[in-house]
Write a structure and sequence with these properties.
Length: about 160
């Protein structure tokens, strides 16, 4: 819940988390507000991007932007974001988005009902991606990339 490096600390990596290093503090910083309240996942092209990591949103975001190119879509909005002097924001992966939801009180909540993740749904990668429903109870699900959902950027420290 502390302000740090352009956003709000939402999660500190724990033993067993990918990227955890004993004796070092690393985690996820969330932007203090949503970057968009209704945007599609892709640029209109139903091309599978292979952005299927459930844990590495930064790599997913870079992959999506490299494949999809220009446009106004979830990953590109985060990729282009400069906030608090930082330009390394990205669309959270499925598991990072779950951490965001779990710790949503620390960032002032998630006002939208559905938030995109950067994780493509691999059995049907060209047409679907994972999102998170923030209603009660919250849960991850996958949906059509043409759906318009909220976007909250994150960065790692």
């Amino acid at each position: 819940g502390q302000s740090y490096q352009g956003g709000i600390i939402t999660y500190i990596l724990q033993s067993g988390d990918p990227g955890y290093v004993s004796g070092e503090t690393h985690g996820i910083i969330a932007a203090p507000s949503d970057q968009n309240t209704g945007v599609v996942w892709n640029n209109g092209s139903f091309t599978a991007t292979s952005a299927t990591s459930e844990y590495d949103g930064k790599t997913n975001t870079n992959t999506i932007v490299n494949v999809q190119g220009a446009g106004n879509y979830a990953a590109k909005i985060c990729y282009d974001l400069v906030l608090g002097g930082y330009s390394d924001w990205y669309l959270p992966s499925k598991q990072e988005l779950i951490k965001l939801y779990t710790n949503r009180a620390s960032i002032g909540g998630l006002p939208g009902n559905y938030y995109w993740s950067s994780t493509e749904y691999s059995p049907a990668g060209a047409g679907n991606a994972w999102f998170y429903f923030t209603g009660s109870p919250g849960y991850p699900h996958y949906g059509n990339k043409e759906n318009t959902y909220y976007v909250r950027a994150v960065r790692s420290f």
